[in-house]
Amino acid sequence: MLETKFIAELNPEYNILRLVGNRISHKLSPDTRARISAAKSTVEARALVSAARKGVHPSRALISQMSTSTKIVHVYNSDFILLNTYR
What we know:
46% helix; mainly alpha; extended
């Protein structure tokens, strides 16, 4: 309610939706639709959708997908003292 009031009163130029939570009046450009479609068709996106359908939390799917890469994580405390290293 308050957000709608401020949008109506201030009428900011960068706001494309005049009613909070309502996208009915907003149409996507063909370029934006193409970019969304391309993003949805990536291997990562398909893996996330597949995992979600199987009941696996998306972050777990990403972690297992990225586990093939070797990244080293160093954990420091607020005094910049190394606490642990994960491989």
